[in-house]
Amino acid sequence: MTVLTGAARQRLTDAIRAAYDDPEQRKQHTEEYAYYPVKWVDPYLARRRKIGWDLYALLGIGREDKARMHEQHGRNYAFFDAPVGMIFTIDRIMEQGSWLDYGMFLENIMIAARARGLDTCPQAAFTQFHRIIEEQIALPDNEMVVCGMSLGYADMSQVENTLVTEREPVGGFARFIE
Predict the structure, then answer these.
(1) What are the φ and ψ backbone dihedral angles of 31, each rounded to 5 degrees?
(2) Domain that holds residue 110
């Protein structure tokens, strides 16, 4: 894990934004591993779209407003203006079970932050720009980027921080057998 603040956080933000904002450069950056399914199916597709459109509606971004969508997505790379940005990495030798453990590690960081009055936002968006990240943070060859995460105090005056997503009822994903 690499924790970035101040000038280091800004250098990473600037480097990624330069690639993200240039369509030709952006095409040269792809994820190193498949974070999302190759083919989306329901109910996952519908849930993903609902959250996205709900957020854009709060922000007043219409479905045809590609420029504002691009800008909103690009806020990921500024860690949504949080003062602390974290880049999580894993040793390439680790297999699927270790990635499950890593998810619990991420969740525990998020829970510990909330216990201290801080907010977090895990960000898969960073995986597309792993080569830039590797260079900016001098990542050893044996490490790969898992995700980024913003850390700070949520500004509740910002409408996007008021979004409450729908949750699947427990019966939708759990079976109870007696």
Answers:
(1) -65, 145
(2) 2-33+77-154
Rounded to whole angstroms, how far apart are CA atoms 47 and 166?
9
Look up the CATH number of the domain holding residue 127.
Answer: 3.40.109.10
Q: Angle CA(117)–CA(124)–CA(86) in degrees, nearest 5?
A: 45
pTM of the model: 0.93
How many angstroms from the chain centroid is the CA of residue 29?
16
Q: Are 110 and 60 within 8 A, CB to CB?
A: no
Enumerate residues 6+ apart whose C-beta is below 8 A from 86.
1, 2, 3, 4, 109, 148, 149, 150, 151
For the record, the structure tokens of 168 come out as 């699947």
Percent of the chain at pLDDT > 90 equals: 100
Looking at the structure of the chain, the number of domains it has is: 1
Tens-place pLDDT, residues 111-148: 999 999 999 999 999 999 999 999 999 999 999 999 99
